[in-house]
Structures are given as C-alpha cells and as structure tokens.
C-alpha cells in the first residue's frame, strides 16, 4: 500500500509521536509498503526507504526560544496569521493549522496514496480526507491518549485564576479533537486504559477502536558495562505536571538525607525558571540532579543501562514507551499505578514496583527497598527484558497496523460504492 503518515510534530527521541512515526514507518517499509511522512517541526528522524515531506509551520515553540514573535517576512498566508494569533491569545494552534496545511497538500496528491494515517493530529482539516469532493481517501487515526487528562492535571496544579484561564485557552484545541475523533472511521490506540478514556472523554464509539500496543526498538538492550552505584534515572517527554517529576524530586531529596551518594539523571529539557528548576533549588539538590537531552539513541541506551533503578512517576500515561524501553534494558523500575503503565509492566513486583501516583512517601519507600536489594533488582530486570521480547515488537505493530489499513480501505470503498448507487 501507499501510505501517507501525518504527524504535526515529531520530536525524534522524546515524546511518543516522533518515536511512533520513525519505527512504524521503518517496519511498514520492510513489509513492502511505501510510506511518506508529512510532518511539521520538529521533523522526525527516519530510516532508509521512508520519504519525508516537510510541512513547515512558524515553529513558534522551537527551542531555545519558545513563544517567539516571528518577523513579518516569515508570514506566508492566512494560516500562518491564524497560528500566530492563536498563540498570542494563549491557545495552541498546531493541530488545526497543520491539518489545514496537510489537507491542502493531499488534495494535490490524492492519486499518490491508498490510505492516510493520522498520528494524533485530529485537526479539523482532516475532515476533508474522506470527503470525495475534496480528497477522497480512507483515513486511519492513532490516538495515543486523550489530552483531556493532561488538561485536568495541569488545571489542578495551577495556583492562580490567571494560570487556570491561560490553561483553558491553551487546551481549547481539545473541543476540535473530540469532534474529529467522534467522526473517525477507525481509531488505533496503544492500551485498554487509553481506549476506556477516549470513550469516556471524547465520546467515541468503542466498536470503531482497536488496541495495538507499541513496540520497542532492538537497540534497547541490557548493558555490557556495570551499572553506576547510586544512579537513579527518570524520563519525561515534557516538563509538565502530568509527568510527576515533582513527586520524584521530593522522594529523591528524602532519600539523599541518608544516602548522600545518590544521583538523579532526568532525561528531559526543563522549562527555564519553571517549577521543576524552582523545586530543585528549594530542595537543595541542584548538585545531584542532571538534566539530559539531545542525545543519540546509543547514548540514551547506555544511560538507561547505567542506572541501578529507574522511575516512571507519571500521573497518567496512554502507554509509556519509556517504561517498555527501560524494561528492554533490564533496568529495574518503580512506576506509578497510572493509566496504561500497569498494562505495560504486568503484575506488581514482577517487572516493576507499582506505587500510588503523586504519593511521595510511597515512592520513597519503594525506591529505598529496591536500592537495598540487588538480587531483586537483577531478577526484576530479567523479567522486564523477557516481557518486552514477548509482547512489544515494532514488526508485530506494523503488521497489525497494515491489516487495519486494508480493512479500513475496504470499508471506505464499499461505503463509497453503496452511496454511488443511491
């Protein structure tokens, strides 16, 4: 099949969208399909045989100058104006403006593809994809999890009325995403937890949904060097309350009172002057916390394998690919009993210890117990590695996704044929 894979932003190493695009597209090509990725900034890293069509935005949230004011010469059309004005009113424009731009491109290239795959854009422009008067192609949608959970957690963490008003404006795109999701023909989601939440928050018909777990790349493997004594590690795709970093920092500070040799590596980019940096300063642990970002896959795997214990303290996850990647590295884990994380790690204590999200005392105790038990750490790491090898393969993901493409396309053209006879 000829596949157009859409992703409004595809950060290569951090965040589910870019990782999903890279590994799924590679395996689809290995299965004999043709894949062209359409992406806004940041653009993905793609493997040989996968084509990339850049769909540039104004890149208003780029690093290191997010919320920038572009020069007037950068504005190309009214979509750019809409993007900038939405940002100026505290909204998040990218899903909508990307969908408008990519729909325009697909109208010009409708004969080049057999199916379109939306990777959680859910922008109103994608309603044109299946309309025969506009584009006329079958559409499959991946919805990793409803961002309604991020919204609730962010609002609960807000301390002022102004912050809450700004957050409500920022998450204004959710109304659009819910509308598009309810009209989607076929939705793929990575976990049963995500499926339940999408049904509850977006009102999607569960009969149009299919659970296909994510995969783990073969590069994630157990270390060949000894682990670093006292090293803890955590991954967060964003410096946001939903990732539970503040809970981990408070637990780490408590642990260090009796274990001064401990160090914490956080794989994320903190918001300059944001709540994470402020909390680190308040806790007096700045010399013992290191932020890591912008590293290669090989460096990431080496860092994952260097930790004695890793932690995923998120308050919600639609799947938690970092959890599975750490398991593939045989790194013992303490994780939150939140969202789909229990589905990924399996029974409590087998591959990871599960704790209540946001509970500093429980997290501290679990980390302390695991640090004191090297035999259990080794056993947990081995169990995690075996579970990943048995359950989470990108090849298997691609095979199931390709079957979903074929079924969706058959359904779409059968419906078109019925309507044509009416």
Descriptive account of the structure:
The protein is α/β, with parallel strands linked by helices and 422 residues long. The chain has 2 domains: 242 residues, Glycogen Phosphorylase B (Rossmann fold); 161 residues, Glycogen Phosphorylase B (Rossmann fold), CATH 3.40.50.2000. The chain is built from 15 helices and 13 strands. The strands form 2 sheets. Strands 3-2-1-4-5-6-7 form a 7-stranded parallel sheet. A 6-stranded parallel sheet has the order 10-9-8-11-12-13, sandwiched between helices. The longest helix has 28 residues.
Short description:
With 422 residues, the protein is α/β, with parallel strands linked by helices.
Task: List the keywords.
Rossmann fold; alpha/beta; six-stranded parallel beta sheet; 2 domains; 14% strand; single chain; 13 strands
Give the topology.
Layout: E1 2-7, H1 16-30, E2 34-39, E3 51-54, H2 78-88, H3 94-108, E4 115-119, E5 139-142, H4 148-157, H5 161-170, H6 173-183, E6 186-189, H7 192-202, E7 209-211, E8 231-235, H8 245-256, E9 263-267, H9 275-283, E10 289-292, H10 297-306, E11 309-312, H11 321-328, E12 333-336, H12 341-345, E13 352-355, H13 360-371, H14 374-391, H15 394-421
Parallel strand pairs: 1-2, 1-4, 2-3, 4-5, 5-6, 6-7, 8-9, 8-11, 9-10, 11-12, 12-13
Helix pairs in contact: 1-15, 2-3, 8-9, 8-13, 11-14
